[in-house]
Specification:
mainly alpha, 2 domains, 11 helices, about 80% helix, MATE_fam, membrane, antiporter activity
């Protein structure tokens, strides 16, 4: 799987750059193609269909590599066909070179964000360890709830990314007066769209979780945990909008520091304490408490620090 990381990174990079140019349709079809191909290749490599080798447990990794490679090739060809500004024509390739100013900006924004993601991953390992101590039923319920949560979080993440892109366009064009409207629109859409996803998840949860689990006791536990934490995804989406706008202006250290503080100083201690006091459900209450705390912290930073600064284009 490590061999496939460069391909996965390139696909992620190209889809992100495409969204930055205002083209969100190509990334949608590219990722849909990658997902569809992976769904076909995985069983084919497990069963040895169409003369392919039977790879067993390695099938998932190999199919992902194949799917992402083909999706990347398709996106490159599609860009050339539609005359996309990022299409790899000879003129573009001749002018590709390292710009130290842009590299510094990328590192200044990217490194803190990477540290926050590392903190989140480490916290998830710790929380999973707590869950595992409650037995196999708890671990199975944890996995099922995470699957449903990953779908609920899609609009919250997407709206945050979109808000950041629109804000960066406004800042780059020198039209910072639009930022307030972008924030308000992003918050409103999150309430409507993410709220609809959460409502749908609550309504369809018994059916969806039944696709992953068969034991009635585990299904009941998963439903209980989902009802505890599901609503808080809307709160997370509101936070993503605020953070996305601030990051569009290059303000990263403050929002990232607050995010890491919430994970290390709120999520983990609250999860440990509630797990001891009320059991496994306390871990999910810790998620919800953390999302609310993050919204409060980021709102205060946005209102009393970021909004009082002069917003300018990033200097490269």
């Amino acid at each position: 799987m490590l061999l496939g990381m460069p391909v996965i990174f390139l696909l992620w990079l190209t889809t992100s750059m495409s969204r930055g140019t205002g083209d969100a349709v190509t990334p949608l079809w590219t990722l849909a193609l990658a997902t569809g191909l992976a769904l076909v290749f995985t069983p084919a490599l497990i069963r040895g269909w169409w003369g392919l080798p039977q790879l067993g447990v390695a099938s998932a990794a190999v199919s992902t590599l194949l799917a992402f490679t083909l999706a990347l090739v398709w996106s490159m060809l599609h860009w050339r066909r539609i005359g996309h500004p990022l299409a790899l024509y000879e003129a573009l390739l001749r002018n590709v070179r390292l710009d130290r100013g842009i590299a510094r900006s990328i590192l200044r924004i990217g490194v803190p964000s990477s540290l926050q993601m590392l903190t989140m991953a480490t916290a998830e390992i710790v929380l999973l360890g707590m869950v595992n101590r409650h037995g196999s039923h708890a671990t199975a319920a944890y996995g099922a709830v995470n699957q449903v949560m990953s779908w609920i979080q899609l609009p919250a993440m997407s709206l945050g990314i979109t808000t950041s892109i629109l804000a960066s366009h406004a800042i780059g064009a020198g039209k910072t007066e639009r930022l307030g409207r972008i924030v308000r629109t992003g918050l409103s859409l999150n309430l409507a769209v993410t709220g609809s996803f959460v409502a749908g998840a609550y309504a369809l949860a018994p059916t969806v979780i039944g696709l992953f689990l068969k034991d009635d006791a585990v299904i009941a536990l998963a439903l209980q945990l989902l009802h505890i934490v599901g609503w808080s995804v809307v709160v997370l989406g509101l936070t993503n909008v605020l953070v996305g706008v601030m990051r569009a202006s290059g303000t990263v250290l403050g929002p990232t520091g607050l995010g890491m503080f919430a994970i290390l100083c709120i999520e983990l201690p609250v999860a440990t304490w509630l797990n001891f006091r009320i059991g496994m459900s306390g871990i999910w209450w810790a998620y919800a408490v953390t999302f609310v705390a993050m919204l409060g912290l980021q709102s205060l930073f946005y209102r009393w620090v970021w909004s009082r600064r002069e917003v300018r284009r990033l200097s490269t």
